[in-house]
Amino acid sequence: MTTTKEVPEKILEKIRKLLRLKEGAEKIGSEGEAYAAAQGVHRLLTEYNLSLADLKDDDGNVTMDIGESEKINYDSEYGS
Question: What is the pLDDT of residue 62?
Fold first, then answer.
C-alpha cells in the first residue's frame, strides 16, 4: 500500500488543486468542468492508491469533511 510519504508532494498538490477546481465549478454551475475535475481526482487517487482521507491541506488539516446523511437511517427500507 502506498503511503502519503511515498507520494510526491507535487501529486498531492495537484489533487488538492483539482478538488478546489471541482468545488469552484460546482459553485458557478459548470457541471462539465466539475465532472472533469472529479474524474482527475479519482484517477490520481486510484493511481497512487490513496483516499480523500489521506489528503491534508496546507495547514495540515484533513481535507475530507464527513457529514451525516439524511437519506439512509436505521428505519429506512433501503438501509437493511
Answer: 52
